[in-house]
Amino acid sequence: MGFDRTGMSLFVAALVVAAPAGAQEVKTEAVITSHSNGVVKARTRQGPITIHVSPGTTIKESKGLGKKTTDEKSLIPGLIIQVQGHQQGDAINANRIDYKERDWRTAVATKAGTQEQFSELRKAIIEGHEYVIRKELPVYFKTGQATIAPEYKTQLRALAQEAPSFGNYRISVLGYADPRGNAAANERLSLKRAGMVSNFLRQTGHIDPGRVLSPSAMGEGGLAPGQAAPTSHDEARRVVVRIVTPKTQLKE
Prior knowledge:
The protein has 252 residues and is an alpha+beta fold. It folds into 2 domains: 5-107, CATH 2.40.50.320; 113-249, CATH 3.30.1330.60. It has helices at 5-18, 101-111, 115-127, 150-162, 183-202, 233-236; strands at residues 24-36, 39-44, 47-52, 58-63, 66-69, 80-88, 91-100, 131-140, 170-175, 216-217, 238-246. A hairpin with a 2-residue loop joins β2 and β3 (47-52). 29% of the residues are buried.
């Protein structure tokens, strides 16, 4: 079947839109340095590059042997990506962008990312995905209270002072309550305790406040990976502080 004159004109016009004159098809690795409104600034081994992302750009995240489609919001500074598209000068019109989930989590840990991304990172740390615990400190509380005792303030200052030695670290803060009383009230109390510890760590002056993750309420029964169940009410009334680092960037 042949093209009529009109069909051929439309076909040629489509080619011009898809691949500007002089553009070359490329596939390259790059690290994102900034991203705003469909324009991604990145750096390759050859130098800086501008990547244009359109609604037609396919963005894929890989984990193990699987891949899932994501959106432009996942393209954050610090992320290592594989870009396919057409390059003209120092700009690429991207047809497809691929990245690995572990590289995304590392980028979030390094750059903090948006609040939504930060929430996902915190969830990954709590669930033990892609992160390793470098140090852990329990802080215990009296019944119904969220005041940090002086001895624990001393220990928290020491932990904050040591944290930067672990390199690309984050500090996870998980609050708990004992099972007595109302479950909803215990949830609120566990969050208040975690918030008190989180604020204290941020104010020590030894760490970047942005490296302390938002406090998490574990209530009266939750346990994070690697935690043993408390054997008494005294042990249950606690905040668990953990220094964690990505498994891909351990610092010995």
